[in-house]
Amino acid sequence: YPGVHVKDEL
Amino acid sequence: MNIFRFAGDLSHVFAIIILLLKIWKTRSCAGISGKSQILFAVVYLTRYLDLFTTYVSLYNSVMKVLFLATSGATVYLMYVKFKATYDHNHDSFRIEFLLIPCALLSLVINHDFTVMEVLWTFSIYLESVAILPQLFLVSKTGEAESITSHYLFALGSYRALYLLNWVYRYMVESHYDLIAIFAGVVQTILYCDFFYLYITKVLKGKKLQLPA
């Protein structure tokens, strides 16, 4: 689901 | 984690260390915009709230704490410890002109209308323009010390390297985040003029002086 973004960056 | 992302992070950490060392060794923050430093502190505070909610990796958490701590230390050095050396008169950029549009934009264009997501979006937008008070200060004084130029070059390179990281991730992992990409492009464009001066002047041993 594109609304949930994986925030694995800084 | 790919090489572009890692190089970007290293460049970012390098920039912060250069700045802290400059202030500490010279006991002065002359030529540095306190307003940009406050904006960066706001950027990290609003983005890294997820330290308490999501765990990505030890690397991620350590870097987040590092950015929070070092930006807090920079603001402390500028506004408390070496306050007397702060170039108050030249650092006259009105930060509300950046804060308010970024806040409004993050309320309108975001991935999800939740507090955490809007704050994250706000921090991404704000980071893209947070260097403007610093560039404004350089343009007002017409020059920058070499060490300040190295700081700006490392800081600008960081997001440019992230752009390469996003191209790589899109191709290899089909991963992309339009908000981050858009803001990253804006952020990198803002440095272009500076990059040009850095390469044509500072790297040739000359001081960064703007043409009159």
From TrEMBL, chain B:
<keyword id="KW-0813">Transport</keyword>
<keyword id="KW-0653">Protein transport</keyword>
<dbReference type="GO" id="GO:0015031">
    <property type="term" value="P:protein transport"/>
</dbReference>
<keyword id="KW-0675">Receptor</keyword>
<keyword id="KW-0812">Transmembrane</keyword>
<keyword id="KW-1133">Transmembrane helix</keyword>
<feature type="transmembrane region" description="Helical">
    <location>
        <begin position="62"/>
        <end position="80"/>
    </location>
</feature>
<protein>
    <recommendedName>
        <fullName>ER lumen protein-retaining receptor</fullName>
    </recommendedName>
</protein>
<keyword id="KW-0931">ER-Golgi transport</keyword>
<dbReference type="GO" id="GO:0046923">
    <property type="term" value="F:ER retention sequence binding"/>
</dbReference>
<feature type="transmembrane region" description="Helical">
    <location>
        <begin position="119"/>
        <end position="139"/>
    </location>
</feature>
<dbReference type="GO" id="GO:0006621">
    <property type="term" value="P:protein retention in ER lumen"/>
</dbReference>
<feature type="transmembrane region" description="Helical">
    <location>
        <begin position="151"/>
        <end position="172"/>
    </location>
</feature>
<keyword id="KW-0472">Membrane</keyword>
<dbReference type="GO" id="GO:0005789">
    <property type="term" value="C:endoplasmic reticulum membrane"/>
</dbReference>
<dbReference type="GO" id="GO:0016192">
    <property type="term" value="P:vesicle-mediated transport"/>
</dbReference>
<comment type="similarity">
    <text>Belongs to the ERD2 family.</text>
</comment>
<dbReference type="InterPro" id="IPR000133">
    <property type="entry name" value="ER_ret_rcpt"/>
</dbReference>
<dbReference type="Pfam" id="PF00810">
    <property type="entry name" value="ER_lumen_recept"/>
</dbReference>
<feature type="transmembrane region" description="Helical">
    <location>
        <begin position="178"/>
        <end position="199"/>
    </location>
</feature>
<keyword id="KW-0256">Endoplasmic reticulum</keyword>
<feature type="transmembrane region" description="Helical">
    <location>
        <begin position="92"/>
        <end position="113"/>
    </location>
</feature>
